[in-house]
Amino acid sequence: MRASLIQIAVDEGESVAERRQRAVSLVREQAGADLVVLPELWTTGAFAYEEFGPEAELLEGPTHEAMAKAASDTGVWLHAGSIPERGEPDGGSPAGDGPLYNTSLVFSPTGDLVAAYRKIHRFGFDKGEAVLMGAGDDLVTVRMPGATTLGLATCYDLRFPELFRGLVDAGAETLVIPAGWPERRRSHWTLLAQARAVENQAFVLACGTAGTHAGVPQAGHSLVVDPWGEVLAEAGRGEEVLTVEFDPGKVAATREQFPVLKDRVLGLDRPRRR
Length: 274
Ligand SMILES: O=C(O)CCC(=O)C(=O)O
What we know:
Layout: E1 2-7, E2 9-11, H1 16-28, E3 35-37, H2 49-55, H3 62-74, E4 77-86, E5 100-107, E6 113-118, H4 129-132, E7 141-144, E8 148-152, H5 161-169, E9 174-178, H6 186-200, E10 203-207, E11 210-213, E12 216-217, E13 223-225, E14 231-234, E15 240-245, H7 249-257
Parallel strand pairs: 1-3, 2-11, 3-4, 8-9, 9-10
Antiparallel strand pairs: 1-15, 4-5, 5-6, 7-8, 10-13, 11-12, 13-14
The structure holds 2-oxoglutaric acid (AKG).
2-oxoglutaric acid binds near residues 159 and 188.
Keywords: Hydrolase
GO molecular function: hydrolase activity
Family: Belongs to the carbon-nitrogen hydrolase superfamily. NIT1/NIT2 family.
């Protein structure tokens, strides 16, 4: 299986429409890949909080339209990264008043939207995304027939191992994590991507952005990790397409040869009384 991670640069000075057009061109250049991945909130930048509202899109908005066509024209599975999604308004509110979500979109090679994942863990503590956006509450997996099952997570989710255990229980073999991870905590990004791969005996495809969003320099360093924790490929800090070939069968082989997942004791995340 061949995957291409598009570590697109997000910098001020390029409009959302211009970047969307550039992302379409980058996807089209990946003909021959099985799976193409874009990062988190690449239309606005993950830290451009003031842009979330004005640039929010309905699920079937301009990014959906552009990416569905890019996927079908190129004949690839496309994880189109995430967009600031404008959800349905509560009953009685005007249409533009729906809550915001950080929503990832996955398209099949026919251009059909096969999954939308609303980020569960919002970053910022008491500001930024944590207050501006609503939280998703559904675990999402996507079956790529004959290849692998994707488990979806986004950026800050990487810090919460229980989410990934849930995805593994739902059948995930390849964990796809679009991000807008800051350079300041790059060591955590690499370490956690490897940890999620080792503990879940899964491939990790972690796709970040390059550039500087709203004054926050980005880590770049997208990476692909195998189920043994080995880094198969890693990008630098600038805009780059990271292409890697891997054998999805390695997940089952690793889980069989070193069957630690069978030794899990369930329910330890809930207090128990003696
Ligand atoms: O957890 C981190 O250090 C970065 C998370 C983040 O930037 C995000 O989720 O947007």
